Amino acid sequence: MYLSITHNVFTVMEILAPLLKNKQKQKLLWDHIVKNVAKPSMKAFIYAYLYLVLPKAIGRILSAIKKNKYDKILPRIKKTMINALHPLKFPVFSASLVAGINILEPIVLGIFKKNKVLKNPTSRLFFATLVSALVSAIVTFPAYQNHVLGYGRYNSLDLTLLLATRAMDTALSSSLAKVAPPSLAKYGDALLFIASCTCIMFCWFFYPEKLPPSYHKWITSAANMDVELWEVLRLVRQKKIVYGEHGPYEDFLIPYFEKYGEDPRRANTVRTQPIECEAVHAFKTKSCEIHALWRFWRGFEFAASVYTPLNLLMLLFPSKTKMSVRLLRAIRSSVRSSCFLGAYIGFYWYAVCLARTRLFPKLFPHIPRVRFDDTICAASGAFACGFSSFIETAQRRKELALFVAPRGLGTLVPSEPTKKNLAIESIVFSISLAVLVAYSKNNSSSVRGIFGKGLKQVFNIQSFE
Predict the structure, then answer these.
(1) Cα 102 versus chain centre, distance
(2) How many domains does the chain have?
(3) Which of 17, 18, 276, 388 could form a disulfide with 344 if both were Cys (CB 3.0 to 4.6 A apart)?
(4) pTM for this one?
């Protein structure tokens, strides 16, 4: 191994020696450093800086306005801007990562050429980029990881999950594009969305610790679910409530029934088996279908209050398209997206009812009654809600799938910050980044979505082709 490293070092020196002896070649080297190292690194720094600072600055402004502390706005923004320049924060980390890749890439490519590794120039560039990105990430990521770990576990883990899912999506879509039938490409994003939502929603119900607290809180708010109902089904799953048997939690739902003015005797899990559907419906109706429609409407209202102002805000930006056309497009987009979220919630609740009482117990009478409440109902709802993505356009479906996939993957991996887990995360981050950058160099359109556009902007794709 030592002889191999020594040989490669001497090879690099042989490549650089002629450049250092000739002034014209020295200028070429300098131009290369400026164009292919300094500029991409600065771009990466600026994008990462804006990504880190802008949301925090806007939050500081809104908070100060809300509290009538206008004199605090400038000092807080200044502090935010200065803190973002810390050498271990995301902007400097991004710049260092890109600089390392672009410094190593021509060196590794030169070594490959010198040793006649891979005759195809495209393949040679791909693997040179892959190796360079892998080394740069392995060197730079651990310091950043250790720094942001002090602010919360998900600061680095979310980034790693994002890169991992994008890398798998890029590798699979690039490999399967040539052999997969058109139907797979057509429904691939929907299947990814359904699979991700199944994992996320099942964990939301029974394993909330696998989700970031803010993420779980947002889902709970959108689903409009009473906490008591969520907790009682968890007690059933934990076997702290057993239908038909006396126990400390048999009257757990009495306050819930009293809150809605219902007979508290119906809340007892010894007397009433299983929990009534009307109680699951928050006593709005006895009909599961009407309840699902009510849930749809609540989700629609919630989504409309978010999407409509955003789409209307986009009308303020100049465009060559007529205002009437843009307004109609904004309204259509808001309605479609609101229907998507309404259907997401409505499908979930209706599937829960089908699994608990309406359908599954009749189809599978030999399954113990408690099994429908402690597993099957939540799993059915988690699976069904993902089908709401078919309401959206194909482009929007792709964006939704890529958005939820990292969080879906996150439910399957341990989040505890042990040394082993952090080391595995560092390796996964490095490999994922290397795959993304290498594919982007090979074909800039292979990395889908805004992430691919960002890589294309930061890296000089045509540098060594």
Answers:
(1) 27
(2) 2
(3) 388
(4) 0.80
